[in-house]
Amino acid sequence: MTPTLTFLCISTYFKGNDFLLALKDAGNKVFLITAKKLEHKPWVREAVDEFFYIEEGEDGTYNMNEIITGLAYVMRTRPIDRVVALDDFDVEKAAHIREYFRIPGMGQTTGRYFRDKLAMRTKALESGILVPGFSALFNDDQINRFIEKYPGPWMIKPRSEASATGIQKLSTAEELWNTIHELGDKRHAYLVEQYKPGDVYHVDSISYNGIVIFSWNSKYLAPPFDVAHGGGIFRSVTVPLDSSEEHALQTLAVDLLKAFGLKHSASHTEVIRCYDDGKYYFLETSSRVGGAHLSEMVEAASGINLWKEWARMETAEAKGENYKLPSVRKEYSGIIISLARQEWPDLSVFNDPEIVWRMEEPHHVGLVVRSKSRDKVLELMDKYAAIVQKKYHASAPAPKKPTH
């Protein structure tokens, strides 16, 4: 009989309940490290054997020495077999813990490719994958050479934030240098990148034994940066199945994840197809399930719940057993999400039979639809965007720090 394995999950944002339930269903012992401020969130407590709470520092970080000391005490009586980060911001914590306690899984070097935008761009470029022009902000001469080589506009991005948080778009060299000077002693934590207008896509995948065994390709109907900074409505839809678009995205994502050395994980990769040359460029990736309820959208079209299958795959890998992906459905889905003026908006106006999921969060309106026809999904996305804009939509300034 296989001994019970203990999984330590880390999530300093409220997410991953499906993952925790699936881990428990697979017969594992489940520990969860989360932020003290999230103690009263509706976690699936029946799936978690022990909670460990950590306090956030004034600068929004967590003290790794305290976490290591606490875990060392726990492990005197309760050994830990695997560590899984459920959010971008916990990837480094998980890698640190694995390396310190010599627990199998992604270490700090590989972890950087999935957290540090400078590391991921450098590695992609070295691996022959197209990326927009970019430069670190370490050296003034290097930045000036970058400005000469790649005309504006440009984006300044934090190296290790998730989503579109902290990104600024600049049009002139003067604006760019002013922004760099404003960053002061923190400029090394940012990079500058050529702004390439184009369509932005996301590829949501599961890797097992270093091979991408599932990937689903979708296109944002408005780039996440424009939504975050322009107060827009977030929408995404499945790309045409078996199209040149799908094949190009899949090829790029597979090449990328292989180059980055991802062994066993879910991942979310963003790609831009530039208007000027029609080529696909890598933007960024992460070793976790995509945020903004994209997992609900992927599941609607494919039948694959990324959280559950990631948990099942991690369990099989840890036990040395074979993991088999369930059969994949081939349909289309779309998601629409917006901030709402109303605390609990009445969604009864949305009553089409294609609706398979409704968001239940205060001051939000969100829906996922599914159909065998992509045209039908796009038609509903446009119809709903018009209704949301008129009856519900509210916008807030883009946060300086992530709030998801």
TrEMBL record:
InterPro entries reported in the protein's UniProt record: ATP-dep_AA_Ligase, ATP-grasp, ATP_grasp_subdomain_1
Keywords noted in UniProt: ATP-binding, Ligase, Nucleotide-binding
Residue stretches making up the ATP-grasp domain: 121-315
Name under which the protein is recorded: ATP-grasp domain-containing protein
Lineage, highest ranks first: Bacteria, Pseudomonadati, Bacteroidota, Cytophagia, Cytophagales
